[in-house]
Amino acid sequence: MNPEASNQGHDALPVRADRQDLVEGSPVLDGELVDYGPNKRRATRAERFTSWWQRSPRVPAVLKSRRLAVQAAKDLVVRLLRSPFRIAGAVVRGVAVAARWWRSWVRVSDYREAAEQSEKLADKFTDIRALTLFRWKVTGGVLVVGAVAVAVLDLLYGSRSLWITGALVSVGLAVLGRRKDGSPGRKPVLAGPRTLTWTMDPQVLVDAFRDAKLIGKDESLRLVERALRVGDGRAITVDLPATRKAADVIKNREALASALAVDEVQLIVERVRGNGGHAGRVSMWVADSDPYASPPVRTPLLGVQRWDAWRPVPFGRDARDRRIDLPLVWTSLLVGAIPRQGKTFAARLAAAGLILDPHTRLYVADFKSGKDWYAAAQVAHRFMSGDESEHVLTLVDWLVELVSEVQGRYRRMQDLDDLVCPESKITPDMSRDPVLDMPITAIFIDEVQVPLENRSPVEVEGKKLTAGGYVGELLTWLARKGPAAGILLVLATQRPDSKTIPSNLRAVLGSRFALRVMDWRDSNIVLGEQMNTRGYDSSRLLASHKGVGILRPDGETDVGADVLAMTVRTFYMPNEDWRTICQQGRALREAERTLTGHAAGEDSRPVLDHAAVAKAIGGGSAAEVESGPEAELPEPLASVVDYLGDELASGDRDFVPTAELVSALEVESTAFGRQMGDLGCKPTRERVTTEDGVRQVRGYLMADIGAAVATHRGAGTDDE
Ligand SMILES: Nc1ncnc2c1ncn2[C@@H]1O[C@H](COP(=O)(O)OP(=O)(O)OP(=O)(O)O)[C@@H](O)[C@H]1O
Predict the structure, then answer these.
(1) CA–CA separation, 334 vs 513, rounded Å?
(2) What span, in angstroms and rounded, lies between the C-alpha atoms of 285 and 665?
(3) Pick the CATH number of 637-719 from 1.10.8, 3.30.1490, 1.10.10, 2.60.40
(4) Which amino acid positions bind ATP, per UniProt (predicted)?
(5) For the complex shown, is ipTM > 0.90?
(6) Tens digits of per-residue pLDDT, 64-105?
């Protein structure tokens, strides 16, 4: 690649302006300056030393900053000037403490109190009195001996000895009267900052686990692999005490990060699975600094000639800098985030892998109607960009065409022998055989909430439906049946809420990628029910971390087949790289003669068999679409329903403890109980099995919650 050209590309930022309205004049630039890969130069020895010095927990903070050092010097001068007064104060306090102790001793207070408590003071009075007299005599004796000793010393050594004795007594009294830790006002209200020291002191790690309540007071950790330097951080593997679960450590990662004094993005906690692991083995990695603050990495696809759609597509890197590839075939992908977090960039990465395989067929529906997808028009079998109702109706036609295509493929697979098609599933050879005509076909829909929310009427087999409802039904059917036949969906949405993306559609989208969202509910909508309680909540990601999200893949990734989800920063693929990849994809298709549809200049209308499609997706569900959207539930019932998800209907659970709901929904328990009561849900007590055995806890019966939901939905619909 020409370096000059590439540098130019970095400086020339994406132009976001209306194409038709562009007349002569300076372009309006919208974008972010990104300093990445190729410009990175090796740090010098001095720079490396400075970086180590700044990060090392062994170097005191005052030596890391000039401002802090000056402040520390000033504090020292003040301390020195104040020291005579502080010593005098300590001596006075020491005299008071000594006098109090002597008084209690001479009065035999402990003996007296014990006798009083056992109501035997009268019996013991004579003994106490005798002891008191004896102690007075001892006191008198010590004073006389002391006075004589001082007089003798004075005679022998002069007044110097008096000064020395006085100084020694003062030091003793000052020590006695020093400000000790533990009593109010006797320690600084704000102690210094906590810093990460666990790599040096395993006890700190154990304490952190205890502070985070991940192990009990009397429990400890076992070291499996000592702390090692891995990448730009340290890794350690430990075994939890028996019965403690690694899943709970992952869930409470934030508490552990706080106990270890690091930001949670710097802490990666994974369960070690398989042969070398067990349910209580935890592998931890702590980054030296924010792992996502470094410049983003360009997609490795830029350097490859072609890609195989069956290979997982390079998607990004995790905090430990491990490459994460995303399997796309036989699954579907949902990408969700608030605006400007990198959804389109993420969806385009998935597309890039497929574009570089000339045997794939692409449908691209860009409801963002910007320039982000424009370059894909040269390779896409069907392409459109716009957010009007006509575009939604075109999408309906595409989806109907794809449903027919899937049905056709299954029919044709039945006729193939077992050697070519061993299961009712497409294989790599089948997808590349031009005679079979079953290429991997992917439909990309950016801002999928636009068609899903469209209320234009469509008539299907005599029934009136909303276009959005019909799109939802078609997408659900395709996500369920399509992947095995080689048809996959990639949907990106700015509005990951339960009303926009129907729950039955979400349930069948295998892979999920959640960039930053507004709250844990939206995060669960993208990632799946209760993922926040398992430690995966994309609302906790930082706004400055563009392209960073939580990936829940459907299938094996390089991190491991059993990893539920992971935080990934997507590769950076700005517009000029995207254009290069699309041009390369076109050249590959031209060479293989696989250019079809829109890209080949033949914008054929889809062949539609509405009757067969309506039959396939089922009349019952279509009727549901007709009845309009479900009435909105009041809070906190809506959040409870969101949290419980499918558990509410599945009947797997009869009861949910209040404590679980309060902690998952992050609400105040009294107010929550009152609001639930107002909505017709009264708590009960049930016996449940917890870690500490069977206990009776307060909570709600699923049936009661279900009944309250039905009542409120019914009421809402009646009102309309
Ligand atoms: N992996 C990445 N590394 C660094 N920056 C990124 C990355 N991915 C995206 N960005 C930055 O984030 C910005 C927004 O990305 P993108 O257009 O994909 O957001 P979006 O979520 O699709 O936005 P919208 O909702 O407005 O369509 C881009 O301009 C890009 O500079």
Answers:
(1) 6
(2) 29
(3) 1.10.10
(4) 337-344
(5) yes
(6) 888 888 888 888 998 899 888 888 988 998 898 899 899 989
